[in-house]
UniProtKB/TrEMBL annotation, chains A, B:
Pfam families per UniProt: RCC_reductase
GO molecular function: red chlorophyll catabolite reductase activity
UniProt region (Disordered), positions on chain: 17-45
Protein's GO biological process: chlorophyll catabolic process
Protein name: Red chlorophyll catabolite reductase chloroplastic
Domain of life: Eukaryota
C-alpha cells in the first residue's frame, strides 16, 4: 500500500517475484482452488466474513479499478488460499476511519501457514476526502515471502487523487542487493525479461515515469519496477477507466500470476547464511514500511489514536 | 564512460559521492592548485604530453560539450592533481582507433597516490562514424575511490548520436546497498538533497527520463541518478549546445565539486569488515564495467585485436 504526502508520494508495502533458472524447484502450492470467503453465497456471515465482504467492496473506486482489485485478490485466494491462514486482524483494524468519517480504510491480512513460503499477504484500501473537494483513493496488494526462499516480494499500489490521473507502483521487489549478487539480478529480472511489462505501459502517451519523493522507495524497488504517473487530461475517449481495464489490469494480472507461480510456489534452496541475510534485509524493509511510510501518514489521515491502534497491530507482522 | 549498443544504451564507468553528516571528517586533499599537463604552455612536449593534449582536444564534439569536459578535467587536475600519479597507460592505449579510422578513442587514466583515497580517475572520449552517415560521440569522466572511504564514486557520461539529441548519465554511485545500510542513503543522498540536480534538469521540456537497456546499470546507480535523454528536435533556439552550456554544465560542475570536496577529500573512518565489503562490492562493479560493458562494445567498435590490447591494460586497474 502506498501512502501519499499531499498529492501522490511514497509507497508503503513492498513485494518481490522471480522465476526458475537452471534449477528445477518444486511447487509448494496446492493446485486446488479455494473459494474466497468474501465471495461466499452463505446467507449467515459472521463478523469476520462481514468485514471481508466490506473490504472486497472497494466502495470508493470506479468500476474497472474495483474489478481489477477483486480479480487480483480472488486470484491470490484461489491459488494460494490453502497456504494461508484466515485474516487474524482485530475487527477495528480490518476496518477503521477518523472521527469525522472523512477518511476510511480497510485492511485484510493473511499469514502463511508454517509449511508455506509466504510470510503474509496484505490487501487494503484507503479513502480520504481532500480539502479541495476531491478524494484520495489508494488500493494495494503486497505480499512478503519468508527467508526460506530468496524470491522477490510483490507490490502493487494504485493511487488516485483525481478522476483523470493515477500513480501506479508495481514491482517484484528484490530481496538481495543486485550488485553484490549479480546472479540474483540475472535469475529474477534479466532471464525473465520482466522489463517487458514496464516497456509495454511506457508506450502509452498518457503514461510517464514517476519519481517518488522517497529515496528509500526508489532504492528498494527493482530495476524493472513500474513506477508511473498516468494522466489522461481531457481525453474522454481514453479515460483512466479504460487505461486500467486494457493496460494496467493485464500487466498487473500477468505479474501477479508470475509471482504466484515462480516466486511464492517454487521451492528454492537457501543456506543458513543466506537465510540470515534475507531475514535481516527483509526486517529493514518491513520496519521502514511501518515506521517511515505508514508511521508518517496514518496519524495525519486517521488521528493519533486510531493510527497507534492500527500500527501497533501491524507491527506484530512487520516487526518492531 | 558509457558504451552504446546500436543507438544509446549501457554505461561503463561507475562513480559515487556523499557529504559529511554528524562526524567532522578531515580533508585529505591539498589546497594547492596544480597545472593540468595538457594545458601547459611548455614548448617542448614529450610523447606523454602530446597524448594528453590530444586527449584534451575532444576533437569531435561541439563547442560547449568540449568546453564542459575540459573544465571538468581541469577542475579534477587542479584540485586533486597533487593526489594523483601521471597517466601510466601505454601510448597505444591512450590513443587508438580501428583499422579504417572510422572509430577513434582517447583515454587518460591517473591512479591515486598511496596516501590518497582515490583509486583512479578515468577520462575518455570515443568517436565512431555511423553507417547512417552521422557519428556517435561519447565523452566520459569516472572516478573510483579506495576502500579506505565508503564515499560514492563519480560518473559522468555524455552520449551523443545525433546533433539534436544527447543521453546524460550523471551520478554519485553508491558503494553500499542502500537498503541494508539505510544510514548510507541518509548520509550521502537524503541529507545532501542530491536529488535537486535531477529535479532541476527534469523541469526542462526537452529532458526526459532515460531507461538504460542494461538492468545492471539501472541497479548500480543511486536513487538520485540523472539518467536522461535530451532531444531538442527542430527547436533551433534551444539547441543541444545551449542545453549543455546552461543546464547540463552547471549541474555537472556542481556535482563534481561536491564529489571532490565531500567524497574524494574527506577522510572517513572505515572498519576492517566494512573495508572488506567495499573491496568486494567495488570489485564486482569494476569487473562488470570491463567485462560486460566495454568487453561487449570495444571489439565491435575497434576490432578484436585493439580491444584485447586496451581491455587487457584497463583490467590492471579495474581488476580481472
Amino acid at each position: 500500500m502506498a501512502i501519499i504526502s499531499t498529492s501522490t508520494s511514497s509507497s508503503l508495502s513492498i513485494f518481490h517475484c522471480p522465476r526458475t533458472s537452471n534449477s528445477t524447484p518444486k511447487s509448494r502450492c496446492s493446485k486446488s482452488r479455494a473459494q474466497f470467503p468474501g465471495s461466499s453465497s452463505s446467507a449467515s456471515m459472521d463478523t469476520n466474513d462481514e468485514l471481508k465482504a466490506k473490504f472486497m467492496e472497494f466502495p470508493f473506486v470506479s468500476g474497472s479499478h474495483k474489478k481489477l482489485m477483486v480479480e487480483l485478490l480472488s486470484s491470490v485466494d484461489s491459488r494460494l488460499g490453502s497456504s494461508l491462514q484466515s485474516c487474524t486482524l482485530p475487527p477495528d483494524v480490518q476496518h477503521f476511519g477518523n472521527s469525522t468519517a472523512s477518511a476510511r480504510a480497510s485492511l485484510h491480512l493473511r499469514s502463511g501457514l508454517p509449511s508455506s513460503q509466504i510470510d503474509f499477504i496484505l490487501g487494503g484500501w484507503i479513502h480520504c476526502d481532500l480539502p479541495s473537494g476531491g478524494a484520495l483513493n489508494i488500493t494495494s496488494l503486497s505480499a512478503y515471502l519468508k527467508p526460506s526462499t530468496n524470491a522477490p516480494h510483490f507490490l502493487l499500489d494504485l493511487i488516485q487523487s483525481s478522476p483523470t490521473s493515477l500513480v501506479l507502483i508495481l514491482d517484484l521487489t528484490p530481496r538481495k542487493d543486485p550488485i553484490s549478487y549479480p546472479d540474483y539480478l540475472k535469475t529474477y529480472y534479466e532471464d525473465t525479461n520482466l522489463d517487458r511489462h514496464r516497456q509495454r505501459l511506457q508506450t502509452l502517451p498518457v503514461v510517464k515515469p514517476y519519481f517518488s519523493p522517497s529515496l528509500y522507495i526508489r532504492a528498494v524497488l527493482s530495476p524493472t519496477a513500474i513506477l508511473v504517473g498516468i494522466d489522461v487530461g481531457d481525453d474522454e475517449e481514453t479515460g483512466v477507466e479504460d487505461i486500467i481495464e486494457h493496460h494496467v489490469g493485464p500487466v498487473a494480472k500477468e505479474m501477479l500470476d508470475f509471482w504466484i507461480e515462480s516466486c511464492a510456489c517454487l521451492e528454492r534452496s537457501v543456506g543458513e547464511d543466506e537465510r540470515d541475510y534475507l531475514e535481516e534485509r527483509d526486517g529493514i524493509i518491513k520496519r521502514t514500511t511501518i515506521e517511515v511510510d505508514l508511521g508518517a501518514s496514518f496519524p495525519r489521515l486517521f488521528g493519533q489514536e486510531v493510527a497507534d491502534r492500527v500500527l501497533g497491530v501491524l507491527k506484530g507482522y512487520y516487526g518492531k
